[in-house]
Amino acid sequence: MIDFQISDKPFNEDKIAEILTHYDDYFIPKISDRKNIVEYARKLSSNATFILAKNKRKIVGFTAFYFNPVPKTTYLTLIATDRNLQGTGIGKSMIYKLIEFCTTHNSAGILLEMRANNLKLFNFYDSLGFEVKEKFSSSLNGETRYHMYLPITK
Questions:
Q1: Domain of residue 35, residue span
Q2: What is the pLDDT of residues 71-90, one digit of tens each?
Q3: d(CA 33, CA 25)
Q4: Residue 85 maps to which CATH number?
Q5: 0.85 exceeded by the pTM?
Q6: CA–CA separation, 39 vs 140, rounded Å?
Q7: Interior angle at CA 29, CA 73 and CA 3, nearest 5
Q8: Quick one: CA dihedral 105, 111, 113, 114, positive or negative?
């Protein structure tokens, strides 16, 4: 059974760096190709809220997001599920937990950025009601990216 935990301080920055390193190659480009993992872990530990998916005591997925009180919006910065558990509903459950958090905190919606050519991820977010808000070229590598948005209705 998978348990979900929402916490703004789940671990210290060393543990967050360990999680980011474990999931590094799940992201294209890898997190380490874009950011210094230790510095990013420090930023996340100070500013982000996490949803952890655990099977017993092992983390099998996580979401990191920023809740911005002004304006009341939420930015989903990272989401990952262990490869051998993808397609089992863990990612959807984490997004549903995020929606619950946003509803409780009166967030107007959830914004995220993704690579436009990642059809599997696009279909995942589309199935949850996210819509393309903006199409743009990445300043990092020029690839086409989307900002997707899910309004939170009360």
A1: 2-151
A2: 889 999 999 999 999 999 99
A3: 10
A4: 3.40.630.30
A5: yes
A6: 18
A7: 55
A8: positive
Q: How many domains does the chain have?
A: 1
CB 37 within 8 A of CB 21: yes
Other beta carbons within 10 Å of 84: 8
Between the alpha carbon of residue 124 and those of residues 7, 17, 79, 98, 118, the distances in Å are: 24, 26, 12, 15, 10
pLDDT, tens digit, for every residue of 49-74? 999 999 998 999 999 999 988 788 99
Residue type, 150: L
> Which residue in 111, 99, 120, 121 sits closest to 147, CA to CA?
111
Q: Concatenated DSSP letters for 58-111? A: EEEEEEEEEEETTTTEEEEEEEEE-GGGTTSSHHHHHHHHHHHHHHHTT--EEE
